């Protein structure tokens, strides 16, 4: 009877389509559940398969065993749905947004830290004598050697180095932990 319904449907009898649907729905549903899919996904997939058959019946005249064709089509469709669902979960746009948001927040925090650090260094420099401020300025902003700074300031290279050491030590002793690591680094360069 089902084989006859298939032949009639392919020949153009749309009423035979309902016979096919009712004859195979429970078999396909049980098969889909056995594959491990939830009830709603199974029902939707079966609907999709039958819709595809209905709209492309002219291309399916070569199908002899409709039950095998339906089971294979359902299995392929379910695995395609499963694959697509996992692909969507892998590309979670909320995660991308959160990641970008973190980057923006980190940039703001870095900018704030940099501004606070510059302010503190500026404050520490203001507490130094003018000579020591000039030496730091020449050394770290203009990257001049001790000899070059000494020539400009009429000091020996050793005197420049001692003044720079004293300035950095004073800054380090009065600094907070945020600038302390920079000053420690500068001390290691002097040594």
Task: Give me the secondary-structure topology.
Blueprint: H1 2-11, H2 15-34, H3 39-55, H4 66-90, H5 93-126, H6 130-141, H7 146-153, H8 157-174, H9 177-190
Helix pairs in contact: 1-2, 2-3, 2-4, 3-4, 6-8, 7-8, 8-9
Mean pLDDT value: 78
What is the C-level CATH assignment of the largest domain? Answer: Mainly Alpha
Large-scale geometry: rod-shaped
Strand composition percent: under 5%
Give the second-level CATH assignment, the architecture of the largest domain.
Orthogonal Bundle
Q: Count every beta strand, where a strand is a DSSP E run of 2 or more residues.
A: 0
Number of helices: 9
Number of domains: 2
Radius of gyration equals 40 Å
Helix share bin: over 70%
- The third-level CATH topology of the largest domain is Arc Repressor Mutant, subunit A
How would you portray this structure in words?
- The chain is mainly α.
- The protein has 2 domains: about 1-90, Rna Polymerase Sigma Factor, Chain: A (Orthogonal Bundle), CATH 1.10.1740; about 95-190, Arc Repressor Mutant, subunit A, CATH 1.10.10.10.
- It has 9 helices and no strands.
- The chain has helices at about 1-10, 15-35, 40-55, 65-90, 95-125, 130-140, 145-155, 155-175, 175-190.
- Helix 1 packs across helix 2 (about 15-35), helix 7 (about 145-155) crosses helix 8 (about 155-175) and helix 8 packs antiparallel against helix 9.
- It is rod-shaped and about 110 Å long.
- The N and C termini lie far apart (about 100 Å).
